[in-house]
Write a structure and sequence with these properties.
With 241 residues, the protein is α/β, with parallel strands linked by helices. The chain is 27% helix and 21% strand. GO terms for molecular function: dipeptidase activity; serine-type peptidase activity.
Length: 241
């Protein structure tokens, strides 16, 4: 199984989409001889799906087609050499994955056919067991359905531990600690911008283009700042560097 779980898509408005992860993504594409990819753009609410596909074609150097360009969404995934799941609104994305029959289709493609999965922001969230640690608003009145469960631990993308002056609400740390208090058997990996997790051949690696840490939240334990995946060893079935 090969997963790229990215906190975000860009580091700046004028930066290429997935640009900060291009060395690793290009190496994987070249090693596998991938010529095309299927984009699942359901999370995008106000943007243009085809424009996003075109951006990815330029960034990755391969043909990228939207899932709706195929006869059915399931047929698109069954033919995919590479699956891309865009950022946007996680609630809408997860609901559309269920309504389109893509939960099982993507699980089978990744687990049985070893099709690589690249998800950023919302696309990262839905790769975990559930979307309960998303930052997004539930824009539809939908229940919290299970997500893809490709990665066994909850992730909080776009993690920021800054406390804005004058803000009297809970910080991100407090919200994630609340999640762990309500769900004491679950943990949360908080990924900063410009960072991602890579699962390859049963091995888990962490990358940060800025050399920053990620945070690990567990009930009854101090928040742990980590720069490698060793702390995740008890939580994931993959070898850690």
């Amino acid at each position: 199984m090969e997963l790229f779980l990215l906190s975000n898509g860009k580091l700046a408005d004028d930066a290429p989409l997935l640009g900060y992860a291009q060395p690793q993504l290009h190496a994987m594409i070249a090693q596998r001889g991938i010529r095309s990819a299927v984009l699942v753009p359901y999370a995008i609410i106000r943007g243009d799906h085809q424009q996003r596909a075109d951006e990815l074609s330029t960034s990755l150097g391969i043909e990228v087609r939207c899932v709706q360009d195929f006869a059915t969404p399931v047929a698109a995934i069954e033919q995919a050499e590479l699956i891309l799941v865009s950022g946007g609104n996680t609630w809408l994305l997860n609901q559309m994955l269920h309504e389109s029959g893509l939960i099982v289709a993507i699980q089978r493609a990744v687990r049985e056919r070893n099709v690589p999965y690249i998800g950023w922001s919302a696309g990262c969230n839905v790769a975990t067991p559930s979307i309960r640690t998303t930052n997004d608003m539930p824009v539809r009145s939908s229940v919290v359905l299970p997500a893809l469960g490709l990665f066994p631990v909850q992730i909080n993308p776009h993690y920021l531990d800054a406390h804005a002056s004058g803000h009297m609400g809970e910080t991100r740390d407090e919200r994630l600690a609340e999640f762990c208090a309500v769900n004491p058997d679950e943990s949360v990996i908080a990924l900063r911008e410009g960072s991602f997790l890579h699962v390859h051949e049963n091995q888990l690696c962490y990358f940060s283009v800025r050399g920053e840490d990620f945070k690990l939240f567990r009930h009854g334990r101090p928040i742990q700042a980590c720069r490698d995946t060793a702390a995740l060893q008890p939580l994931v079935p993959f070898r850690c560097d």
